[in-house]
Write a structure and sequence with these properties.
CATH class of the largest domain in chain A: Alpha Beta
CATH architecture of the largest domain in chain A: 2-Layer Sandwich
Largest sheet of chain A: 9 strands, mixed
Largest interface: A-B, 51 and 50 residues
Distance between the termini of chain A: 23 Å
CATH topology of the largest domain in chain A: Dihydrodipicolinate Reductase, domain 2
Strand content of chain A: 15-25%
Radius of gyration of chain A: 21 Å
Order of helices and strands of chain A: EHEHEHEHEHEHEHHHEHEEEEEEHHHHE
CATH superfamily of the largest domain in chain A: Dihydrodipicolinate Reductase, domain 2
Number of helices of chain A: 14
Oligomer: homodimer
Number of strands of chain A: 15
């Protein structure tokens, strides 16, 4: 394959940013762009023209972008509600598909995505960038090397003060609508993605059940009152707490927390029989190694335990894209397309993550009732085929592939 | 009342320590001591003899210590399983009663305690020392003064590496037995006590429901193997996560975490519409006050917001008793006895805290089913009688009582 030929659907702020990144990649050819809004499409066309010195096929209808036979893959970067249906259309058209992160809208949608993968043979990947963040990957490396012993409990969250961006329709309409109408763990993937890699979910482990509990909703309207903006009847609780039990006996705790004032944190936590990592302290503690009752900066372990992908790619040099992880997650997808292999986060991982949003909503609405998380692998998790060898693998840390 | 006359039941390590503290107090007269083990009783007798220069009534039978008419109050510092039955006997004998902290064993026991209070008129207090810790009290003061705005979510835990103390019968038999046979939030009060004061639980608010989820149990036996000790079939999960929903719409998250290696933390967290406190960072952040996205050391707020009890009593001078909070919680109880008033943590607070242990056990055993937390006030919480004015009050921060 000479160049990886990509159609890009959805050119909002994130989509337009991604387009700019793709246009910089010498082994990528953007073959089609699509958005429902003409002014966005025109701005993107102009960007392509400047880079390529020619016109790129542009359309307001995503179907036209997908069906072209000069595409290898389709990136769906548009609305949460359309991620999966567009991805399925792409797979049924014989293309690799990837989407930005987002919550699931129904369990059926998750199953449809899985069936599309099985029936078409075309892989799907959710572009969960935090799986490729340096700290999370170092933790993955430490887990695989046994530093934490047997992993017992993981935690994570999305504690991001988004009041300025979501508390009004003027800013992020998509997220505003979801927060207005739903009460759920709406954005679990930034923490759950990495946690699933540490716990080998869908590869010898799986998530069995969850409960979710939402606080009252006060944060957005407190902000709206301060700004003199209209108050809106938000349904989403300010803090949504979800607890998951895994087949291996591990527990996972997730926090969704976007409408109160606080510094940003993904609330990373991993506890094992031999040690603990706490992201809020950027620190680890290992039994019999760390000074008693003293945290150690995780970076003191980087010389030995930095993930080889980070050592190799020097992703710290990337100045855009959340410190390098965006670059890495896109390259992970593109390498899969180029090599015609399975993606490092596959359709089962995406279905499981999206199902957590759907089921958290059902649990909250039923008074925190425990909900069963479907096994989208239908039993395959107990003895999965090995993940393809790749420097982007999240299933193994195989030093030999970095040589 | 000249001196506060106290009978002390239970002279294990904590009981013996408390006895020593009581013997130092000039307004306290220890009138009876009791333990089931003769060697403990003899050691305590010797301590009393040295301090008072006379014999103190000593008995192996707690009933004999309780029924004497030279007692005003009975302290129950013995086994978790006996806290409530002994306290009820004391109340039915016309004495104030206090117990050390511990989990409930049944809901019926919690109701019996409440009924004993109502039928005898004698108050009961669980000696939850962390309610009187400086940081937790400063947070209480800030909550009451509105710094956090409307409180939305609280968190806390008991992350204490007790593997050396509990993983074998050789050390703490009591806790070892509970961890061997039960799977529950066994020790919620150190964090839940303060949280209840912040959320005005039982005074305009109450805890409605909970779910609990336990991880697998690996920590104690990992330690036992390392030490060459016998492995035991522990039931208690290494990490137990409990989520509570309150009538006011707030959520509470509790973590029990005593069998894995980690530095100590009570995982304190309070989030409101105007700010956040995070104990692991010993820091706060207030909307529009703190520098954007920057935590501030909570102590920079102490000049203005240190709780007046801490300003007044200079409890920081106390060198023993967990940095002063033990002293304060005992003085809070003793002042209530002296003034014949209600205790600052009353029987409804104790019943609610103990019920959380019982219900967490039921929830875990039923796959994290949500459980209803009884309203032990039977409706009184919606319009409670005011708490007595006292420098030890946890219901109000009334500056005038400190003058």
């Amino acid at each position: 394959m000479d160049k990886i030929r990509i159609a890009v659907v959805g050119l909002g702020s994130r989509g337009a940013w991604w387009l700019g990144e793709l246009l910089k990649m010498e082994d990528v050819d953007v073959t089609a762009i699509c958005d429902r809004l003409p002014h966005r499409l025109e701005a993107a066309q102009e960007l392509c023209r400047k880079t390529y010195g020619r016109e790129v096929f542009a359309t307001l209808n995503h179907k036209e972008a997908i069906v072209r036979d000069d595409n290898d893959a389709v990136l769906m970067l548009g609305s949460w509600n359309d991620h999966i249906s567009v991805a399925i259309e792409a797979m049924r058209s014989g293309k690799y598909a990837a989407s930005e992160v987002g919550p699931g809208q129904s369990l059926q949608q998750c199953w449809d995505l899985v069936r599309a993968r099985q029936e078409t043979g075309m892989p799907f990947m959710m572009l969960e960038n935090c799986c490729y963040n340096r700290e999370e990957m170092a933790v993955l490396n430490m887990v695989k090397k046994g530093l934490f012993g047997e992993v017992i409990h993981c935690g994570g969250g999305y504690r991001h003060d988004l009041r300025e961006h979501i508390s009004s329709f003027e800013d992020d309409r998509e997220r505003c609508y979801h927060n207005l109408h739903r009460n759920a763990e709406l954005y679990p993937t930034h923490e759950l993605g990495p946690i699933m890699t540490w716990l080998s979910v869908n590869r010898g482990n799986r998530m069995l059940t969850l409960t979710a509990t939402a606080s009252k909703s006060r944060g957005f309207n407190t902000m709206n009152r301060k700004k003199g903006r209209q108050e809106l009847p938000y349904t989403e609780g300010d803090v949504v707490t979800t607890v998951i039990k895994c087949a291996g006996g591990e527990t996972i705790e997730l926090t969704h927390d976007i409408s109160l004032p606080h510094p940003y944190s993904r609330l990373g936590l991993l506890e094992g029989t031999e040690g603990i990592w706490l992201a809020d302290k950027h620190s680890v503690y290992f039994d019999g190694i760390s000074p008693e009752e003293k945290w150690e900066d995780i970076e003191t372990y980087y010389e030995k335990y930095d993930h080889p992908l980070w050592k190799k790619t020097n992703a710290t040099d990337f100045t855009s894209g959340h410190g390098g992880m965006d670059w890495l997650v896109m390259r992970a997808f593109l390498e899969s397309v180029k090599n015609r292999t399975e993606t490092p986060l596959d359709v089962y991982d995406a279905a499981a993550m999206m199902a957590v949003s759907v089921l958290s909503e059902e649990s909250i609405s039923m008074g925190s009732m425990p909900m069963a998380i479907p096994d989208f692998t239908e039993g395959r998790w107990v003895r999965r085929e090995p993940a393809p060898k790749s420097i982007y693998s999240l299933a193994e840390v195989d030093e030999s592939v970095y040589e």
